[in-house]
Each structure stands twice: as structure tokens, then as C-alpha cells.
Specification:
- The complex is a heterodimer.
- Chain A is mostly beta strands.
- Chain A is built from no helices and twelve strands.
- In chain A, strands 2, 5, 6, 10, 11 and 12 form a six-stranded mixed sheet that branches. Chain A has a four-stranded antiparallel sheet with strand order 3-9-8-7, with no helix packed on it. A two-stranded antiparallel sheet of chain A has the order 1-4.
- Chain A starts with a strand and ends with a strand.
- The mean pLDDT of chain A is 94.
- Chain B is an all-beta fold.
- Chain B has no helices and eleven strands.
- In chain B, the strands form two sheets. In chain B, strands 2, 4, 5, 6, 9, 10 and 11 form a seven-stranded mixed sheet that branches. Chain B has a four-stranded antiparallel sheet with strand order 1-3-8-7, with no helix packed on it.
- The radius of gyration of chain B is 13 Å and the shape is globular.
- The mean pLDDT of chain B is 93.
- Classes of the chains: A mainly beta, B mainly beta.
Chain lengths: 112, 116
């Protein structure tokens, strides 16, 4: 079945550091890929998405590129802020399996 | 446009009781999905409804059930509560069922259920 693997957390960075959170997936066909973010005490917010190979999703300074050859969708941001502290989830939806399959989440803490 | 709303936000129940959670999707969205979030199991899909029909169901026991009304609002019910049912229950809506290409789900804030 479909699965998503995220890098283990927690991740702690200083403000203005470069962020990478790794995400790889296992799925047949051509799934759509997503990053969601969850702030403390809240639900999930869609951060960005990509629907086909080599697509780049971007939002709020975050980027992720759909790499079919490496089955990856790594999240990056050039300069993180304290307000980026949250839990980040990588997820996929595959054709014919109409649900989100999530990774385990990566807790990110940014210190001033 | 208002987002996905869930009621109640917090709930405390006793083992053996039953509970009903409610979800109102974004206006115009006809598909509603439910997910359970726990520290141990992460985010797991419960079921999805579209046009009042359950289209997809996750690997949960029959104690977990749901329904969707003609206005797209949805409820989920858990009967004979167990301690392990303590979780954050998230509702998500989309215009149409997720189909692997372009569809997006938008989540509500969740209902925090504690079973004692």
C-alpha cells in the first residue's frame, strides 16, 4: 500500500537558518503530494502541494519539488522564523484511493 | 468564506459511553472525511462521505460510524468508548472526493476526545 516516510524529529534551528525536512513516499502510479502544518492546539493547514513530477509547490517561503525518480518531496525554506515552529506533515493522495496518507510528522522548533 | 467547523472542541466521556461529533464543511464542499490523530498512531483515515454516501472507509472497528446530511454536514459516532479512543478527531472537506489530481482537503480545528 501507499506510505510516506518523514525524517525523524524533533528539529531545532536558530532563526534565519536554512530548513530541510525530508519526505519520501511509496506509491504506485502518480500520486499528488502535500505538505500540511499543524500549529499547537489547531488542526492541519495545507501549506503546499504538487500534482505531477517536477512540479514545485511553494507558499509562505516554503518550497517542495516532486521528484519521481527519487520518490521524494522534501520541504525547504531559506530563512526560518520563530513563527514557523509547528509540526509538519508530508502526505499523498493516490488515484483510486481517495484519502490522505500521512507521514508521522516532524516537530520543528525555531529559537530566536 | 468560513472554514471547516467542528463541534464540540473538547469532550470528556467515560469508558462504555457513546459520543457524536459534528462537522460543517466549507460552503460548497460536498466531500467530508474524518481522521483520527493520536501520538502513537499518528493521523489515520476513518471514512469519507460524498453526497450522503460513504465512499471509503479506513481500518477501524464497527464502533466507529458516520453519516452525511443533504447539506453536506457530517457526524461521526463512536459507541462503547474505550480508553484507546482518546484522540483528536479531525474533519476535512473538499469540493469533490480526493482523486489523486489537484483536489485539496481543508481541515477543521478538531475535537479533542478524552475517554476516562
Amino acid at each position: 500500500g501507499d506510505s510516506v516516510t518523514q525524517m525523524e524529529g524533533p528539529v531545532t534551528l536558530s532563526e534565519e537558518a536554512f530548513l530541510t525536512i525530508n519526505c519520501t513516499y511509496t506509491a504506485t502510479g502518480y500520486p499528488s503530494l502535500f505538505w500540511y502544518v499543524q500549529y499547537p492546539g489547531e488542526g492541519l493547514q495545507l501549506l503546499l502541494k504538487a500534482t505531477k513530477a517536477d512540479d514545485k509547490g511553494s507558499n509562505k517561503g516554503f518550497e517542495a519539488t516532486y521528484r519521481k525518480e527519487t520518490t521524494s518531496f522534501h520541504l525547504e525554506k531559506g530563512s526560518v522564523q520563530v513563527s514557523d515552529s509547528a509540526v509538519y506533515f508530508c502526505a499523498l493522495v493516490n488515484f483510486g484511493n481517495e484519502k490522505l496518507t500521512f507521514g508521522t510528522g516532524t516537530r520543528l522548533t525555531i529559537i530566536p | 468564506k468560513a472554514g471547516v467547523t467542528q463541534t464540540p472542541r473538547y469532550l470528556i466521556k467515560t469508558r462504555g459511553q457513546q459520543v457524536t461529533l459534528s462537522c460543517s464543511p466549507i460552503s460548497g464542499h460536498r466531500s467530508v472525511s474524518w481522521y483520527q490523530q493520536t501520538p502513537g498512531q499518528g493521523l489515520q483515515f476513518l471514512f469519507e462521505y460524498f453526497s450522503e454516501t460513504q465512499r471509503n472507509k479506513g481500518n477501524f472497528p464497527g464502533r466507529f460510524s458516520g453519516r452525511q446530511f443533504s447539506n453536506s454536514r457530517s457526524e461521526m459516532n463512536v459507541s462503547t468508548l474505550e480508553l484507546g479512543d482518546s484522540a483528536l478527531y479531525l474533519c476535512a472537506s473538499s469540493l469533490v472526493p480526493l482523486a489523486g489530481q489537484g483536489s485539496e482537503q481543508y481541515f477543521g480545528p478538531g475535537t479533542r476526545l478524552t475517554v476516562t
